[in-house]
Design brief:
alpha/beta; globular; Rossmann fold; seven-stranded parallel beta sheet
Length: 254
């Protein structure tokens, strides 16, 4: 699919990998809706790229439906959906005081990363399936954002790894399910990237993490993620695939 002129949805588009993807799609001519819970940052990114900010909670059906309707009213029906919003946590199953890890923490990560992604995807797909087919019968494309933690989860990452593993597991059946509607589904599983969350870590810690990556021995750049996301849109034969973007990194247990 050609990106130029298409309407695109980017969840988590106000910062990090989502922001980079929103900016890259806009650079390539897409009409971008920045979906995020952070209204201030969403407005800033949208203003910079000539898009629209749609504040929403992806775990809430009504909030997400309203955001998609707002985007469609401004840009027309979307054919591109980039699911990049997500959260992380690190909790040992048995805490230092001997108590069990809080169930609420596990539930929240699963709800945002896995259920939230499914929520956006189902609403996007239902509308996209109504559109006129393009070349090869394609109507749209959606992206999930997993993580290398889906495969190499570290100590304390049970919730995060489970949520990202769920996205990996959902990729192929979603692609098969939506094939009849001409909607492709792919997933990127990024490694260690230079995001706002990563930059909050002490510099020595960042350098140590970067050194663990075989090549290139540095943190990934958000624009590299964005470039791959854009390529997935334009390469029509990419479907049902999970792509690791990690510099050959394999995470250690801790």
């Amino acid at each position: 699919m050609k990106i130029d002129g298409q309407a695109a949805l980017v969840t988590g588009g106000a910062s990090g990998l989502g922001e980079a993807t929103a900016r890259e799609l806009a650079r390539l001519g897409a009409k971008v809706a920045v979906l995020d819970v952070n209204e201030e940052l969403a407005n800033k990114v949208a203003a910079d790229i000539g898009g629209i900010a749609c504040v929403c909670d992806i775990t809430d059906s009504a909030s997400t439906a309203a955001a998609l309707a707002k985007a469609a009213q401004k840009h027309g029906p979307a054919r591109i959906c980039m699911n990049i919003a997500g959260i992380g946590t690190a909790k040992r199953v048995v805490q230092k005081d001997g108590s069990a890890a809080p169930l609420e923490d596990f539930e929240r990560v699963i709800k945002v990363n896995l259920i939230g992604t499914y929520n956006v995807s189902r609403l996007f797909a239902a509308e996209c399936a109504k559109l006129t087919p393009l070349e090869d019968g394609e109507r749209g494309v959606m992206l999930f954002t997993a993580s290398v933690a889906a495969f190499d989860g570290q100590v304390g990452q049970q919730a995060y790894s489970a949520s990202k593993g769920g996205l990996v597991g959902m990729t192929l059946p979603m692609a098969r399910d939506l094939a009849q509607h001409g909607i492709r589904v792919c997933t990127i599983a990024p490694g260690l990237f230079s995001t706002p969350l990563m930059k909050k870590l002490p510099e020595p810690v960042q350098q140590s993490l970067a050194a663990s990556i075989p090549f290139p021995p540095r943190l990934g750049k958000p624009e590299e993620f964005a470039q791959l996301a854009a390529h997935i849109v334009t390469n029509t034969h990419l479907n049902g695939e999970v792509i690791r973007l990690d510099g050959a990194l394999r995470m250690a247990p801790r």
